[in-house]
Amino acid sequence: MKYFNSLSIVAILLATTSLFSCKKNGSEGDAQNTSSSEAENVEVVDSTSQSACCSSSFPIAYVNVDSLLLNYNYAKDLNESLLKKEERSRKELKSKADKLKADYESMMKKYQAGAYLSEDQLRRDQESLAKQEQDVQMLDAKLTQELMAEQQKTNKQLRDTIISFFKVYNADKRYKYILSDAGVLYVDDALNITQDVLDQLNAKYVPNKKK
Predict the structure, then answer these.
(1) How far apart are the first and last CA of the chain?
(2) Residues 126-134: what's their mean pLDDT?
(3) pLDDT for the residue numbered 165
(4) DSSP E strands: which ranges in 33-92?
(5) What are phi and psi of 149, to 5 degrees?
(6) What are the tens digits of pLDDT across the range 71-103?
(7) DSSP readout, 16-77?
(8) What is the pLDDT of residue 38?
(9) Which of 64, 124, 181, 183 has the least CB density, counted as fewest CB within 10 Å?
(10) Which contiguous run of DSSP H or E holds residue 179?
């Protein structure tokens, strides 16, 4: 059975996502969308350059994704829920596999003791074991698929929540780009807004106490 960690995939959510694009100072009034690859290679330009998109005071900040996902209460709750479902699936599969193993050992003992009175009886037990083995394999595939689907759902919920938050967080347009630290080679700690983001995210999140 394959096992999943929601944080391992969710960690890429902000790594390649540019949330806010730069507006040109020329005659073009519409904002031009900038790709994530461009966002990861933003260069500080000379303020005297007339063709430059933004000046040297270009407002930019970054978020430490690992810290965000490990400390955001909603992300922790989603991950805990996913791990519980994984554990239930693991126990269900183990129960079926243990029964198959016990039945196989029982058949082998019976065979070695010469307890089978006919080849038909032996064949029926072999066919029963083969059917059990097939059922275990099918259950393994089913549970794995269900966990993958649940993880995708969880990732989307978390991504949508964070992206929606940043749209409100940056409503005053103080940042042109908010990046993930995973997308750059160097960041000045003074630009780190992770704690501010975490404080506001956790302040807004109300846990669902329903069991």
Answers:
(1) 27
(2) 95
(3) 93
(4) 60-63
(5) -65, -40
(6) 999 999 999 999 999 999 999 999 999 999 999
(7) T---SPPPPSSS--SPPP--HHHHTT-----TT-TT-SS-TT--EEEE-HHHHHHH-HHHHH
(8) 39
(9) 124
(10) strand 177-180
Question: Which band of pLDDT confidence, cut at 50, 70 and 90, is reported for residue 149?
Answer: very high
Residues 2-9 have a mean pLDDT of: 44
Other beta carbons less than 10 A from residue 176's beta carbon: 22
Tokens 């500080």 sit at which residue?
44
Strand partners, 61: 178
The strand pairing partners of 177, in sequence order, are 60
Which residues lie below 8 Å from residue 37, measured CB to CB, with a gap of 6+?
16
- CA 167, distance to chain mean position in Å, is 21
Q: For 20-59, give one letter per residue: b (16+ CB within 10 A) or e.
A: bebeeeeeeeeeeebeeeebbebeeeeeeeeebbbeeebb
Question: Is the entire prediction scored with pTM above 0.90?
Answer: no
The answer to whether 62 and 177 are in contact (CB under 8 A) is no
Q: Quickly tell me which residue has 């780190």 as its tokens.
A: 192
Band of pLDDT at residue 190, cut at 50, 70 and 90: confident
